[in-house]
Design a protein that fits this description.
By secondary structure, the chain is α+β, with helices and mostly antiparallel strands. It is about 30% helix and about 15% strand. It has 3 domains: about 1-110, Adenine-n6-DNA-methyltransferase TaqI, Chain A, domain 2 (Alpha-Beta Complex), CATH 3.90.220.20; about 110-165; about 170-255, no CATH class. It has 5 helices and 15 strands. The longest helix is centred in the middle third of the chain and has 40 residues, at about 110-150.
């Protein structure tokens, strides 16, 4: 039988390992089971890929359907996982211990019909977000097409525009961001901008950024201001070189070492 590992939950194209032997029935999975990864990558997933067996680092959660709607339970867990990271343990691979998980409270509004109405609203909101993302992607392709029509491909410069190096147009050398170990991250502190917060010029989710404990001098040196331009300098080809423009700030904000 296929063994479900965290990578099989986060990437549906990841190949399975297989197990041929005896196992306790509590490790068996079937379609509709709720899985919660509690190590390295926290997440909640609805299993819909057939019979399998469960690997370590994943909880199988079986909610009491007399108390909580199944889909509401999934949304509630997803919502509190970010807060649960403050309970994470370990220096290299972060994980949540079972006692912390068992003692975490989630809101359960009665009756079940109220929970189902909440799920309906959230599903509509997610559908709207997906449509918005598709529209943004189409607009970005349109912008790129218009740019190429007006100015040509920058790599070949068919219109022979004047060229100059970056050091001729920048007021000062680019500023790398701040690096600190995971020990400094937590629920309080100053929000930090990372590569997953912008893509092709669009910055989003400033209110949900991770936070880092840092000094006033570090904020002054690495802090961002409106109209700053960010460029990703590391990571995969998908993100390498992507830019973002700071257009709004809710509070002090600084950038990490990948930018």
């Amino acid at each position: 039988m296929p063994i479900v590992r965290i990578q099989n939950l986060t990437n549906q194209f990841k190949e399975f390992n297989y197990y041929n032997g005896e196992a306790d029935s509590k490790y068996f999975l079937k379609n509709g089971d709720i899985l919660i990864s509690w190590s390295a990558s926290l997440g909640v997933f609805l299993w819909e890929r057939g019979d399998a067996v469960l690997n370590q680092h994943i909880f199988k959660a079986i909610p009491d359907l007399n108390i909580v709607d199944k889909n509401y339970f999934i949304y509630a867990i997803r919502n509190i996982l970010e807060d649960m990271k403050k309970f994470s343990h370990g220096s290299t691979m972060k994980h949540i211990v079972k006692s912390d998980f068992d003692n975490t409270n989630i809101p359960i509004p009665p009756p079940l019909e109220t929970q189902r109405k909440i799920v309906d609203i959230l599903e509509k909101a997610e559908a709207t977000q997906r449509l918005r993302a598709e529209v943004d992607a189409l607009i970005q392709k349109l912008v790129q097409s218009v740019f190429l029509d007006m100015f040509g491909d920058p790599a070949s410069n068919p219109y022979t525009w004047k060229e100059c190096s970056f050091d001729k147009i920048l007021l000062k050398s680019p500023q790398n961001g701040l690096y600190k170990s995971s020990d400094f991250y937590g629920g309080d502190g100053t929000p930090i901008m990372r590569i997953d917060s912008f893509y092709d010029g669009k910055i989003y989710g400033l209110e949900n950024l991770k936070r880092l404990k840092c000094s006033e001098s570090e904020i002054e040196r690495y802090g961002l201001v409106i109209e700053d331009i960010l460029i990703n300098r590391v990571n995969s080809i998908e993100y390498l070189g992507k830019c973002g423009l700071i257009e709004i700030l809710y509070e002090p904000l600084f950038l990490n070492q990948t930018l």
